Amino acid sequence: MANKLLITxxxxxxxxxxxxRRTLRALGLNKIGRTVEKSDLPExxxxxxxxxxLVKIVEN
Length: 60
What we know:
This protein has a single domain (about 5-60), classed as CATH 3.30.1390.20. The chain has 2 helices and 3 strands. The chain is an alpha+beta fold.
């Protein structure tokens, strides 16, 4: 079974590029402080890499 990642939005995406905003929306992060749980997959890791300066990641 894949490990889980807890991803929390900690900074505002207001001044980000549209691609970064779309990535946050695809991850389910639309408000500061919102946390989502995702499987630790290469696709999710790639999405996190795009917005790594906006989020905090905790591995379970």
